[in-house]
Amino acid sequence: MTKPLSKDLSHHLSLEAQSRGASSLKTAFKYFGLPGMVFLGGGLPLSDSFPFDSVSVASPAVPFAAGVCAKPSGSEEDTINFKISKRGEENKFKTEIPLSRSLQYGYTEGQPELVEFLKEHTALIHHPPYEDWSVISTVGNTQAWDAVLRNFTTRGDSILVEEYTFPSALEASHAQGIHNVPMKMDDYGIVPEALEQQLAQWVGAKPKFIYTIPTGQNPTGSSLPVDRRKAIYEICCKHDILIIEDEPYYFLQMEEYTQDVTKRVATTKSRDEFVGALVTSFLSLDIEGRVLRLDSFSKVLAPGTRMGWIVAQNRFIERFLRIHEVTIQCPSGFTQSIVSGTLNRWGQDGYLDWLIELRKDYTSKRDVAIDSVHKYFPKAVISFVPPVAGMFFTVDFDASKHPKFATEFGSDPLKVENAIYEAGLKNNCLMIPGSWFKVDDNSEPPQPAQEVSEAAKNTIFFRGTYAAVPMDQLALGLKSFGEAATAEFGL
Amino acid sequence: MTKPLSKDLSHHLSLEAQSRGASSLKTAFKYFGLPGMVFLGGGLPLSDSFPFDSVSVASPAVPFAAGVCAKPSGSEEDTINFKISKRGEENKFKTEIPLSRSLQYGYTEGQPELVEFLKEHTALIHHPPYEDWSVISTVGNTQAWDAVLRNFTTRGDSILVEEYTFPSALEASHAQGIHNVPMKMDDYGIVPEALEQQLAQWVGAKPKFIYTIPTGQNPTGSSLPVDRRKAIYEICCKHDILIIEDEPYYFLQMEEYTQDVTKRVATTKSRDEFVGALVTSFLSLDIEGRVLRLDSFSKVLAPGTRMGWIVAQNRFIERFLRIHEVTIQCPSGFTQSIVSGTLNRWGQDGYLDWLIELRKDYTSKRDVAIDSVHKYFPKAVISFVPPVAGMFFTVDFDASKHPKFATEFGSDPLKVENAIYEAGLKNNCLMIPGSWFKVDDNSEPPQPAQEVSEAAKNTIFFRGTYAAVPMDQLALGLKSFGEAATAEFGL
């Protein structure tokens, strides 16, 4: 059965994206490589003079029996060793990208072997329900977000962002003169009914898109349940708004948390079970081509690859190609040769095995964190939902229960937040105050205020991560923070 | 003797650059790594799980006895072999950047070992005459140019660009709503007197900066003589205009061309002679901190490193740091570890040796190209200045001497240009018509027209490169093109 084509949503393109032409020199490049043609048109250095004759890589071998953090022996048992030569003819593996190509100009969209792998991967995981989608490589989601802003917003436009979100994302849009307008969230992320109401009451030009980190949200650690994703998608179709789904943590999905250690799942999932258990992405609901998905290797391979990719309808991918031609061009050739060499040796199945092991690793870390919160944090004043994805967990505190709340702190929950932050620091553990992630509503014209309950007003939270420190330190740190908070509340 | 400090030129920053804040989370990061502190503040993956255990590199060894294009034997004679491990303790070389660091988040400005090398290199070559300058890494000059536009221009601003220039640079500024205004050039680049006149007669807000490729200019192949550089620098100081010097070809400086093969210099220059013979950069004239120099590894190592750097006064470097934090972050960690591993083993002297060999290589290629133009192009209708730097040479034609000029072509030089282009193509050689690089003056408000002589009006040119094809093909191609052009002119 053929899938439908995307809708033409080009009217959402920014002034910058609309006025960007293709390179005039491109018309000459159709003659490049024609038999007999001496092409003196391009300023490409000869690859003979690239001073990198070969790069040899040692990567862990499928099935990663000792987990993602194992120190490999270097033997063929647990390590793949491969050499990427400058001169392609020496490369033995069929999908090797020789350095003569990856270190040369060209392939703004990414090297074909890598783009092909990413397309297959995307089809396998998300089954986009329309026909004309594609991918383009980026140098990570931070850059992808910047390119999205430039392609879809013009100074003075509004966008919708989660009430608490990644500060760098806001700084990027703010500096570009974009009005960030917060969407109401609860423990499970964006509240669809509130979003619908907000858009129904919207004053002035509609927002250009919603920006969401739907899975393992930063900072809240929440993940949008599938029914909310469906509702939000419907709302965006109705109001003709694009959806930017920023998904660096997508594959850091974990087992549900249970306090009962005997019920913790120790068995490895099969690949089918693993894929089947992944939360439905906005991309996989997208029948119109309204979703731009930002994916990255930063959290599943390494941040320093500086490589990610955007999935979107072809009309939009073409606009990213044009902006990349005059900005980043493409990810590093070393990155592309090394990552492609690794992934194409692993294969799609091997990559899933890697992600399955990563899931196990993050599940254990999350469990240590949440166990510690249960054990050391003051139960009477906190509440939290254990995360099912991502690197972050949050703990809510009822600020009104602080003994000095109504007196010394003048009923200001931010003063309680700061007191807990400082107490934690003194006890040698740093967690980030939730208010640091709060979006300043700078809508212009001002939008109608949304209702906030008294309880919500007095709720403060702290964000911690279980990704960045070894598990013994994690437990130790949370004990310190929990005890400090307990003492603060006089409990 | 201490050098003077730069002038505060912050008033040149764009609306975007002025409104960009630092990350609010940064205040927490001062606690990162403190003894005893458990830092749960950042979403960094543990480097244990980066699936790259080591990368081993084979690079040519100093002194590159067989030239930059030699195929190394792999023996210690001509090859350095080094291994960069993920876990730093295994690295034996003191300036190795372990993958655990280069593949992690951090160091937006570039890894310290590499930044240090680039600073030393910059001091050695350019001796910037003021104290408070620094460097920041980029992902190449295309991105650096984009960052310059965003840091110093706001929609509606004007900039001055060379009359013929790199089309991608123009497309970037045009799409951002910037008015590109051409500066008059001759065979040696920007004409200072014309620039002074243009600025004296300027209508409306002064241009934000001049953008120039001073050495081996693209497309003209011209290089600005030092007296012009000095004059232009003075003019820019007088009118308070910044200078963007885009210098990808700086180290592709060659010996002067001579037709007399017996006079061609065969001896290798010493390092001191080499450095002494390099043309004076705008940076090395810059007593005020008015120059932003864009440097790149693309033409001297390989384009796919996707790495370059900006040299500028510290106030400006700080603004690039801020924009990079929310866009590219930094170059690929693989690139940084590999390039730093190579360059720090070569040392500053070894790097100069590499550049000296590159100079020899480009000199030979340029000689083949210019010899062929002398031999095969129609002398009666052409003129040219052999390039002393870069990848490009140009040949001017007097269009009025074409037999159909006044008749069939209606005295339109562009019709002659197209006829020669097509004739070349038919004869299997492509050179790019000069008009493709011509800047459309879109000044707003319109600036007074500059005088153009009758001869200049009828001069057309073609750009070729000697960088991209082996020398035998280069000679063959230019023979084809020259013969086609000769026939076109009925000679």
TrEMBL record, chains A, B:
Family matches, as InterPro entries: Aminotransferase_I/II_large (IPR004839), Class-I_PLP-dep_aminotransf (IPR050859), PyrdxlP-dep_Trfase (IPR015424), PyrdxlP-dep_Trfase_major (IPR015421)
Source taxonomy: Eukaryota, Fungi, Dikarya, Ascomycota, Saccharomycotina
E.C. number(s) listed in UniProt: 2.6.1.57
Domain of life assignment: Eukaryota
Catalyzed chemical reaction(s): an aromatic L-alpha-amino acid + 2-oxoglutarate = an aromatic oxo-acid + L-glutamate
GO BP, sorted A to Z: aromatic amino acid family catabolic process; L-phenylalanine biosynthetic process; lysine biosynthetic process via aminoadipic acid; tyrosine biosynthetic process
Domain Aminotransferase class I/classII large, chain residue ranges per copy: 103-439
Main location: cytoplasm
Gene Ontology cellular component terms for the protein in this record: cytoplasm
GO molecular function: 2-aminoadipate transaminase activity; aromatic-amino-acid transaminase activity; pyridoxal phosphate binding
Family statement: Belongs to the class-I pyridoxal-phosphate-dependent aminotransferase family.
Class in the EC hierarchy, top level: transferase
Protein name, as recorded: aromatic-amino-acid transaminase
SUPFAM superfamilies (alphabetical): PLP-dependent transferases
Keywords, sorted A to Z: Aminotransferase, Cytoplasm, Pyridoxal phosphate, Transferase
Subcellular location field: Cytoplasm
Cofactor: pyridoxal 5'-phosphate
